[in-house]
Write a structure and sequence with these properties.
27% of the residues lie in helices and 31% in strands. The protein has 8 helices and 15 strands. The structure holds adenosine-5'-triphosphate and zinc ion (ZN).
Length: 290
């Protein structure tokens, strides 16, 4: 077997699950080149000193906490559950879900205050225990691994505490959400025992990944406009700094290049059209180093 302790840093990611595809996509967008095929235990990048280790998601925080790997990508939900001694570095913008309290559709229960002496099925016993404590509820926690949503129909529980993203799995099993406990998304975590030398490599990797994440929030926009409305346009798109302005062959007309934040994209485009910008061309931003 290849030696993984060769000075490269190690990053643990989920071997096969909901986070795997987006995680691999993010790493590839960050310019990392590696081979990855199913059943593999690890991959080495050939253009960056990084080894990628494939693990079950629940095991990742312990590997990171112990220093067996330097970094990990995992759902915040697992860190909240396990409370491992690791440092959260970046929120990654995928794997969105919420830990929710749900009951069967026909259940008379409408709020958590009615859970006293009830059975609650969950794969998140610690988060559930803390939640019940905070609410001052004495419930019985039934720990199950996987397919928690089926427990009520098997009369194993009166309620479940489980992860929900679209809600379709819950609806499919005739459950209804009555309370949200917390939101979660995939995060990059770092070991607290990373050596100085490796930390320099970690920093470089974080800059690359941040560059991809920042770019996802922006669009690159080019447009033509009469010179007379430049000031108005600058007010609508403050951009990262001042926009690039060049003159066009048609007298009195200019071309403007700038970036627009994704979350205000459509309203900004509408305003630009209103004030007289034309030929608006929008391009995705591949990377943005701030
Ligand atoms: P593993 O085999 O690695 O233990 P798993 O079955 O425990 O996998 P997945 O179901 O693949 O885990 O979920 C991985 C992560 O995806 C979750 O911990 C959570 O952060 C995120 N996630 C996003 N949406 C959902 C959802 N609807 N249900 C469960 N997890 C979700
Ligand atoms: Zn798991």
């Amino acid at each position: 077997m290849k030696n993984l302790n060769n000075g490269s840093i190690k990053l643990a990611i989920q071997k096969n699950g909901r986070l795997t595809e987006s995680t691999l996509g993010l790493l590839k967008s960050a310019g990392l080149e590696f081979e990855n095929y199913k059943k593999q235990l690890f991959s080495s990048c050939w253009n960056f000193p990084l080894n990628i280790v494939y693990l079950r998601d629940d095991d990742i925080p312990d590997y990171v906490a112990s220093g067996a790997v330097d970094l990990g990508i995992v759902g915040e939900n697992i860190i909240i559950e396990q409370r491992n001694d690791v440092t959260m570095q970046l929120k990654l913008g995928f794997g969105y879900c919420s830990l929710c309290l749900a009951v069967p559709k026909e259940s008379p229960i409408t709020s958590s205050s009615e859970l006293n002496n009830k059975k609650i099925a969950t794969s998140y016993p610690q988060s559930t225990k803390r939640y019940l404590n905070e609410k001052g509820i004495e419930g019985e926690i039934v720990k199950i691994n996987g397919s928690v949503e089926i427990a009520p129909s098997l009369a194993m529980a009166d309620a479940v505490i489980d992860l929900v993203s679209s809600g379709s799995t819950l609806a499919l099993n005739d459950l209804r959400v009555i309370e949200k406990i917390f939101d979660s998304q995939a995060v990059l975590i770092k070991s607290n025992t990373v050596s100085k030398v490796k930390n320099n490599i970690v920093k470089k990797l974080l800059i690359r990944i941040s560059g991809v994440l920042a770019a996802q929030n922006y669009k690159y926009v080019m447009m033509n406009a009469p010179e007379s409305i430049l000031k108005t346009i600058q007010k609508i798109v403050p951009g990262l700094k001042s926009p690039t302005v060049s003159s066009l062959s048609t007298k009195g007309w200019i071309s403007i290049q700038t970036v627009i934040k994704e979350d205000v994209f459509w309203e900004t485009i509408e305003k630009l059209k209103e004030v007289g910008a034309t030929g608006i061309l929008v391009l995705p931003v591949e990377k943005l180093i701030l």
